[in-house]
Design goal:
The chain is mostly helical. The chain contains six helices and two strands, in the order αααααββα.
Length: 152
């Protein structure tokens, strides 16, 4: 129903605001990802009126969810900064297992994260980009701190 789709859209966009959680994954868990993407395709290419309604409801949910959740997150950061930051760091740390680029099949045949035995071009580039990202974050954080303190 459109009501379920509306709340799923709000939940999915709220998840996208948080680090380590994918809005698409939320839609997959709710069983709505295929429905939404199919409706979007039908609305764009087929101008199907029912698909346009679905996409419209979903876009409205995204807009309302983004406006609502960003304010809730802002309030949480203003009133419960340390607890909120701890929760956000926990989400990011928990997502590292899925984001870890070096995986090998384990004894059960499932992909498991591990440190590569050999470092080739791909592994070297991955480490280089990791270091570049860390340096960028540190520099941006320092620039922001300097601006707040009136040094910049």
């Amino acid at each position: 129903s459109l009501i379920v789709l509306f709340f799923a859209g709000m939940l999915a966009i709220s998840a996208m605001v948080l680090p380590g959680i994918s809005g698409s994954f939320i839609l997959l868990m709710l069983g709505l990802y295929t429905y939404v993407t199919f409706s979007l395709r039908a609305a764009i290419y087929g101008q199907d009126p029912s698909a346009i309604t679905v996409v419209g409801v979903f876009l409205l949910a995204i807009l309302l969810g983004l406006l609502t959740f960003s304010r809730v997150l802002k309030w949480l950061l203003e009133n419960y900064h340390d607890i909120t930051m701890a929760a956000l760091v926990g989400l990011m740390a928990g997502s590292l297992r899925k984001l870890w680029p070096f995986v090998e099949p384990n004894t059960e045949g499932e992909l498991a994260p591990e440190i590569p035995a050999e470092f080739g071009t791909d592994q070297g580039m991955t480490v280089l980009l990791l270091v570049a990202g860390l340096v960028a974050v540190v520099l941006l954080e320092r620039a922001g701190r300097d601006k707040i303190e009136g040094k910049g």
